Every structure is written in C-alpha cells, then in structure tokens.
Amino acid sequence: MATRVGRRHLLTLAASGPLLQSASSQHRTISSAKAIALDAFAVFDPRPITTSVETLFPGKGTHFTALWRTRQFEYTWLRTIMRSYNDFWSITEDALIYSAKTLNVELTRANRDQLMHCFLELRPWPDAPLALQKLRDSGLRLVLLSNFTQAMLNSAVTRSGLQGLFEPHLSTDRVRAYKPDPRAYRMAVDALKLSREETVFAAFAGWDAAGAKAFGFTSYWVNRASAPLEEIGFAPDGIGASLSDLVTFLRG
After folding, report:
1. Catalytic pick among 39, 87, 173, 208
2. Is 39 an annotated catalytic residue?
3. How many domains does the chain have?
4. Are residues 112 and 66 part of one domain?
5. Rounded to whole angstroms, how far apart are CA atoms 203 and 193?
C-alpha cells in the first residue's frame, strides 16, 4: 500500500532536520512530475543471488549475502569519499572476496565467476513490468539511475524484456561518484533536462531515498523489505511495498 510519511514523523523531523513539504505543496510537486528515475534494485529482484550463494555454501546463504551486500555498498561510499573510483562490477567482486575471507569460506575462481554472473541474470520483481508500463503510458519518462555499470543495466533490461521503456541508462560511471553523492543524482537533471521538482526518484534502499530527498527530488521509497526509516534527517515523500504502490502514489 502506498503511503505518505505521516504527520507524527514530520513533527519529529522538525526538531532535527529539514521539514517535509506540506500536503498541498507535495501534491503540486507530484502533479508536476515529468520523469521517474529508478534505482536498479527497485526494478530488479536480487533475491535469487541469496539462493545461488546458499547452493554453493549450504547454511550460509543469508549471512553471506547480507555481508556481501553491506560491504558492497560500504566500498562505494568509501571510494567516493576517497576519490578513488572503481566501477560497481569490480567493487562487487572485491566485496565478494572480502566476505568469503571473513566467513572462512573457500571461494574458487569458478564459484566467484558463478556468483558474479548472478548480477547479469537479474529479472524484474513480479509487479515491475506492468507498473512501469502504466507509468510510461501516463506520459512519464523513465530512466534507471544506478550504481550498476552500463553493461549490468543493459543485461538486466534485456533479460527482463523491458527494452523500450527507459531512456539511456544513467550509470554512476558517468560521474565517477556513487549515490548518495549529489553528483550521482544530478545525472538525471542533466540528462533529462528537467528540474529537480519535475523528477521523482524511486529508491530501493532507505539511505538512497534519503539521499534523493536531500538532493531535492520528490523521493519515493519502494520498501520491499518493510525496513524502518533511516534516522539521518531526511524522509521520503512516500513509501510503499512495490512499484504498483508508486503508481498509486503518483495518481495522488
């Protein structure tokens, strides 16, 4: 179910950070939306990766994958801060090697290649194709704005049969800075030639939803894991469990 962040949370934020928009100004912002920028994981389902890890390392799939994913994004933030950019494919492999070492798991070259290849076999969440088509049919422009490399995005879109829905992909490789760095979000402004107010960002992670809000986008959190709000002073304008909920949110 699509929701807007409630008044109680707004009052909490008033003491600690920037206020959310009022309901009337929020509605005007949503009504003026001309494009939706989406994080890749808001569209593509990463759960089969855990299944593949569990197959290779029985009993360790959930723990291993959680550590791998955490270190994966920590490396993106560290490399952005250190101004030592490396693309997401390389970072993903580095995080995989680190995770295996941490858990004392023997990671053969074949196993490494197999797990890395999972990122080239991603398919959409069940709700995604129809929701994306509805958004396009309503006249909204769609673009993927992701840490993924161009090749990773191309593979996911092609395997999912979503060709023709998106404008040219916006990989952070363009600006050599990962989300939530403002340079990453600014790619949408520059590529689409639209203002921040005309763009909605659909995030998969709570920190990404907060980063998009801090940048100035209308921010929507596709909170598929029912996670709590991040306590970093910026809350999304709306929260739902699927892209279908995003469609409802945009209809006001």
Report:
1. 39
2. yes
3. 2
4. yes
5. 21
